[in-house]
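Page 47, continued from p. 46.
Same chain as before, 90 aa.
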Amino acid sequence: MRSAPFAAGPPVNNVDFALHKVLPVGEGKRFEFRAEFFNLLNHAQFNNPDGNTTDGSDFGRILRAKAPRQIQIGVEVLLLAGSGRVGTVF
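Result:
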């Protein structure tokens, strides 16, 4: 028989989003753009409550939150030589 936790944490409401665009720039050249958004809507995501009964007044309190919105951007220039692929990442 499985028992329920004494103090369940708040739910996690998380939306991640990514964009990827490839642009040809002449023959044998390509420009790639990437943008990634983690926790796009920037909702507060709290950790679980403190379950240690020896912590005194901190017992049952939520003391920390997870990371806020994070954005990552990447650009890559690809020079396609014959059948091989040569790339440069910025």
